[in-house]
């Protein structure tokens, strides 16, 4: 069977970065329900602050004078207290009821700034009874310190939630091209995952672990090593292979590769599709590794694989100080 030239068979190569396939609210919900960081995680802290906000709001709404006296604010300056209570309740409900508590926590931070400004105004205002100046200032100062402490917690929680939300944004990378080889040969090559480091530069080792499972080792920026286990979820000989990382992996990912014979014996259309959600302590590194390395390299990796299978060697400029191309032969399986 005769195959046309490489240039004639390239269909297309495309990749889309940061393509959301899951709504952010669903990600936030799954993160809250599946958070493995313990009760001290940002979502647990947000819930605690949400309940605190509702409790404080109810006190401000129904007992404004008592609360005002307790914090050293005179009765004539408590007119805004019920409005502040409504705001606190609304913020608390926004944190507790929403799938993603981040907006509610940001609203709490804004409310904290208002509370601190009002307490500062109360601290600057003279007391009507000079004998109570010291007592009033002491109470207002104590209330200001308490609100400042809560504000620090709100800011910390909002930052953690925002960072977690950004790091859990699903990313999809997709690339397609045609290779002048039959689907059977391409499937056989990819089905043996240990072949993949030959063509995917960020991979160091992929080791078969039996029972449709494999162990992956990759190198990230700064020569940092990442390891994870994956399992095959779909295996249609000569048509499709799909796999995903196991739960609690440093690299949460799902991927698939499809092989579709082209008409008139013109080779095979290959489509590689990778989706991942960076999370946990390695999220920033994973984002840098996958989003940048895969986005930039997936097209080149597939073209390198195409060249390897069609010619038996890969042209490279590595170790060539003047950019002269050299051919590195690879043994095909």
Structural description of this entry:
Helix 3 (42-62) packs antiparallel against helix 7 (133-167) and helix 5 (81-97) packs antiparallel against helix 6 (102-124). The model is unreliable at 1-39 and 317-333 (pLDDT under 50). The protein is of the alpha+beta class and 333 residues long. It is rod-shaped and about 90 Å long. It folds into two domains: 6-21 and 170-329, START domain (Alpha-D-Glucose-1,6-Bisphosphate, Chain A, domain 4), CATH 3.30.530.20; 26-167. It is built from nine helices and nine strands. It is 47% helix and 20% strand. A hairpin with a 7-residue loop joins strand 5 and strand 6.
Characteristic terms for this protein:
9 helices; 2 domains; single chain; seven-stranded antiparallel sheet; disordered C terminus; two-stranded antiparallel ribbon; about 45% helix; about 325 residues; Alpha-D-Glucose-1,6-Bisphosphate, Chain A, domain 4
Q: Considering DSSP H and I runs of 4 or more, what fraction of the residues is helical?
A: 40-55%
Q: Order of helices and strands, N to C?
A: HHHHHHHEHEEEEEEHEE
CATH topology of the largest domain: Alpha-D-Glucose-1,6-Bisphosphate, Chain A, domain 4
Low-confidence stretches: 1-39, 317-333
Instruction: Indicate the radius of gyration in whole angstroms.
Output: 30 Å
The CATH C-level class name of the largest domain: Alpha Beta
Cα end-to-end separation: 21 Å
Q: Mind telling me the CATH superfamily name of the largest domain?
A: START domain
Strand count, sense and barrel status of the largest sheet are: 7 strands, antiparallel
Strand content: 15-25%
- What would you say the CATH architecture of the largest domain is? 2-Layer Sandwich
How many separate domains? 2
Q: What structural category do the secondary elements indicate? A: alpha+beta
